[in-house]
Every structure is written in structure tokens, then in C-alpha cells.
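Researcher: Let's try something more involved. This one mixes different molecule types, so please make sure each is placed in the same coordinate frame as the others.
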Amino acid sequence: MVSDLLLTPIIQHIVLAYTALLVSIALGIPLAILALYSRNLQTFVMTSANLMQAVPTLAVVAIVVPLIGIGFWPAIVAIILRALLPIIRNTWIGLSSVDPAIIASAEGLGLSEWEIIRYVRLPNAYPAIFAGVKFAAILANSVAILTAMIGSGGLGSLVFEGLAGVNMMKMLSGALPAIGIALFLDASFSWMERRMVPRSGQSELE
Amino acid sequence: MVLDEIAAVWINYNLTERTIEHLWIFSIALIAAIIVGVLIGLLIYRRRRYAPPVFSSLNAIETFPDIALLVLLIPLVGIGTVPTIIACVLYSILPIARNTYTGLISVSPELLEVGRAMGLSERFILLKVRFPLAFPMIAGGIRIAIVFTMGIVTLGGIFGAGGLGAPLQTGINLIRPDIIFVAGIWVGILAVILDGIAGGIEASLKRRFGSW
Amino acid sequence: MTKRFGETVAVDRISLDIIGGELLILIGGSGSGKTTTLRMINRLIEPDEGTIAINGIDIRTIDGIVLRKNIGYVIQQIGLFPHMTIRENIGLLPTIEGWSREEIDSRVTELLTLVHLPPDQFMDRYPKELSGGQQQRVGLARALVMNPPLLLMDEPFGALDPLLRRQLQDEFIGIKEDIGKTIVFVTHDINEAFRLGDRIAIMHEGGIVQLGTPRDLILNPADKMVSDLVGSDRLFEHIASLTVSDMMVPASSIISGEMPVQSAIEVMVQSGSTVAVVRDRAASFFVAQLPTLLQRRDEVKTVLEATDPPFFLSMDASLLSALEEMKAASASFGLVMEDGEPAGLLLPDDLISRLV
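Model: All components are placed in one shared frame. Result:
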């Protein structure tokens, strides 16, 4: 019974958060790579990303409404606006923190720009990208609750309906699964990290 | 025209009072977070074996969705300003405590050796050498906490804490672009300014005390 | 005293007397126990066995903090506090001891002058604004601030480039004369040891292999390791081919035995020599030493009365055998003769410093 009532919001929540996360990854990594080759793009992307990080989530979610309305897709946009930042930032740091001598020797070997990215820069950036995606995943899980305010549905709806009707049980039935998902995400990312890190020998970037 | 609309929203929704209220909650939460965070960092520095359990608990709290944490606090302290401040502190302890701890332990060994060889007491070394050298790190943690706190204080508006989150909620509920833009952009500007100030302080501390 | 780290014996039953006012070098490779020995003196490390006494007082009976405040300490990494100005770094202990601001400033000024840093230019700068050599001078000034009778130095010039190291060593020799402290100095650089040390203790695997003056070490190395280290093989190879005439100091002037002591002193001071050849009326030769003349100027009238019988050497004698003969006769210098006339003086102490 209870599980049936919960199942739909949980699925909605997961679809919402992880559609947004996947789009963020698909946008963020290429943007970070492009930023390597254009000083202007780099300045623009990093500055706006850093400024955006400071803006409260509620303000981001709210401003989406007058721009593109309410519902599932505006909610996706709001989540992307949050989740994109850590992915771009960490990818860029990982890609650009390669020892210049290694890049020079790769060029000396006759590797093309793309081959240098593929075989030198990206492997160096994996741990940082991974940490960025982990952070973005947890952030998406959090924002996906708030977007219920702008009609995304999901676990957040239970929280806000409960809040409006002073129904503690309903609020908890929204909040607790979200916490469960967060802890599960954190644990599984940490597990994957432990399997990755000894091989690459890189430490985690925030 | 636009200015008139902004002024109308500003006056009708008491944004001056809301801003003062917002910054007031923000300040209390941040000061509480700094005190608690630095103290926890210091305690863990004194009792190093507690570092792993304390940090992994704080890490777990960090992953909680902020709204879920506010919901969990309702049975304990209800809604309003108090749970908002508590949530801010809970999220901000980790960056401040972790950076305090890291800053205190990462003072280079030869400085400590020279300090000991000069006959300085452990207490003196902690207060006059380790702490000042940890300032840039602690400031970095506080800067992260400022962003967290600003976000949660705004969110607190939905849970009856007032501040600039309240007009935003009204704007969303009534689908009023004017309110959303004015309150949203204003709170965004405030957040960026505070973050910028914190960044400036952090950078000057790094220049002053050296960076690692 | 002995110090173990787990199974490893870092310092193995060594015994060492440090003479007040001397600069004692501890030299050895890494793991020889030289730094451990140094750090036991100010109780940064406690010995497992044995005692260390300063002026007859067992240092374990002195509070560690009090002890360390009275022992200057300088290390290779310098360890200036980066968040304090040069004034604050040097003035830290005086501040804790409650000196007034004027007293601290005047002490800092005095010390900066001593280490050749213009005080008004350096007082208010931060360590990272200084070069490595300047930082190390400040490190030395800081160690001297409480005027400690004992100074411990752990490879203080080790991180500097050879030229700068040489310059700081030269300056340090001057400073050492000025401050007149007992200094224990750790190094792995044998040239530095010979330049600075009054006595040198060669350490290996936690023990002292040989302790002696630079001259002892070169002329009488205890074993192969010491001779390798001081390079006496290399020196001897060189020395073996030398004759007395190669290394003697020409006898610039010969003083008549009847000359009044005061005039002889004036002549020697003017010519800058400390040893002079003296001829008596019977055309026999003697040697006069400036310190002896100064000491006995009031008791004797003529130079002759204050001379010593010389140890004669011939020009073409091998330098090595000449040195050995002199050592056997405990002569501190030799008079080199050619065709019955004095040609020069052989001064072993001067010779060793020239060879090194």
C-alpha cells in the first residue's frame, strides 16, 4: 500500500534528477574541453559557473518560472543550472592540470590535439571529473525536491503537500526516501572511487 | 518604467525589512557555524582518532537534501528561524571543521621543530603558530559555508523563517514574474557580493600568511 | 649515551666532551647519528641510556622549555615563522620574556647588524620576501637573541648554492669570533668542517670514529674511512711529491739578537709575520715567536733571550718526513736552511690550512 503510494513519486524523482544529471554531463564535459582552447570561452564559463554557484538554489528555481514556465522541463533546466557547475569546473581543472612537460612530450611524439585530449588529458582528469559528477548527483537529488514547487512532481510534492496540510507523515514520506537515495548515491560513488583511485593514484578534488 | 515596477515590488513586499531579516538570520547562522566548526576542528585536532568517525558523519549530513533536513527538524524544533539556523550550522560545520583541522595539522614540521627548540610551549605554538598559519584554510572553509548558509536561509523562507525566500515563494505560488525577478536577482546579487567579499578576505589572508 | 628508534640504534654508546668556547663539528653521512646526537643536547630527543651534562648539570634535571630557551638552534630549513616579520621572528622569545619594545628593537637591530643585514631595510619584511641566504642570517640572529651560551647548528648552510655557502661560512667565521660561544655544528661537507671546526668528530653508524683537530685528522687518520673522508690519501699523494722548499714561508728578514724586544715586535708587526729568524753574534740561528715576545717583553731586554731553539730542516727534504720528524720532536715550526743561511720557515698549521 504505502510502497505503491511512494513508488510513483520515487520514480518521478529519480527520472527528474538523473535526466538532468545526464544532460549536465553531456553538456559540461564538452564545454570544459572547448574552454581549453578558447581563452574567452574559458573566462566566460568559469566566471559564470563560479557566480552561479553562489546564487541560492531557490532563486535559480524561481527565476526559471518567468523564463520558461512551470512543469517537468523547466524543473530539468533548473537542476541542470545547478549540476553543470561542479562538472565543468572539475573537468576543466582535471584537463588543465596536466604537467606541461607531458603535453610537450606528447606533441613531440606527433600526437594530434584530439589524441592528446583522448590519451593524455582525459585520463589525467578522470578522478576530478568523477568527483564533480558525484557532487552534481547529490546536488541534483537535493534540487529535484525543491522543483516540486514549480510543478515537477516527485518526492518534493509529498513534502510540500505535507507542509501545506501540516501532515508530518506525508512530509517524512517525501524526505526520508530522498535521504535514502542520497546516502545510497554517496556510498556507491565512494565504492566506485575506491576501485578507481588506487589505479590512477590521484587524489579527490572537491 | 522598469524602475517603477521594481520600486513597487520592493515596497509592496517589504523587501528592505526582508533583506534585513535575511542578513540577520544569515549572520547568526554563520557566526554559530564558525564557532561550532572551529571548535570541532580544534577538538578533533586534539583527539585525532575521532577524526574519521566525525568527518564521515558530517559528510553524510552534507549529502542530505537541504529540504529533507529541514523536514527532519520539524518534529524537534518546529518551523521558522530556529530550524533554518540549525540546518545552516549542520551543513557548514564540515567545511569549517575540516579546513580548521587540515590547517592546524599541515604546519610544516621544521617550523614546529624550531618552535620546540626555541622553548615555546605547545599551547603557544598552537595559538601563535598553528592557528595563524591555518587562517587561510579556515577562511576557505568559511567561504564555502557562506554559500551554503545563503542558500539555506533563502530556503528557510518556505519554512516560515522569513527573509528573502518568503517573497520568492509568494512569486512562485502566484506566478508573478515581477516579484520573482526582483527578489530572485536581489538575493542572487547579495549572495555573489558576500561570496566575493569572502573570496577577497581569503586571498588577502593567503598573501599575508603564505599559501600551500 | 645511546638512542634507539625501534630496532635501529641511531646513536651507539658515544661519549663526547665539548670544550667551552669551541666549535665542534659533527660530521658523517646520512644515518650516522650526527643529527640525533645534536637533538639530544637540547632534549628534542631523549637518550635511552646515558646522560648529557652542561656545566656539570644533568640536562634531564632542567625543564626542557627552560633548557631550550638557553640553547640557540639553527637548522637547514631555517623555519622562520612565515606570518611574522623579521622583527617579530627575532623578537619572539624576548616578547614572551616580557622585554619592552625599545629593548627588543635595539636587540634586533644589534643582531641584524651582526649578521650583515641593514636593520632598517629588513626589520619589517616577511621571511618570504628574503633570499635563502638572508633568511639563514635571520635564522642565526633569532638563535642568538637570548644570548645563549650554547648554539646548535644542523647543516645551516646546506641548502645554499656553493658560492653563497662559502660567503656565509666566511661571515660566520667572523661572527663566531665576535660572539665567543660554544657551538656544535652538524655537517656532511668535509670542506665546511675544516673551514669552521676547532675540533671535528667523525661519526659513522651511530658511533664516533675519530675526534680531533683538522690537523690530527689529516695527519693521523684513525682508519681508512676517516682518511677517505678527509681525503688524506689524495692530500698525501700530493704531499709525497712535495719538498720542504715547496711549502715553506720565505724568511723575509733576519733580526739581530741584540735588538731590543720592543723594536723586534714593531718589525714583526709591520711585516705581518708571527715568527722571525734571529741571528746571534756567533752566527747561530734561533726563532722568535710574536706571542712569546709580547708575553715576555717586560722581563727581557733583547730578542735573543726570548727565542726558542729551532728545529732545522733542509730545503730538499721531503715534506712528509719533515712533518713526521717535527711531530716526533713536538716542534711547532721548522727553520729551513740553505748553504748555512736561513731560507724560510715551515709552519705546519699554516700548511694544513693551505692544503685544505
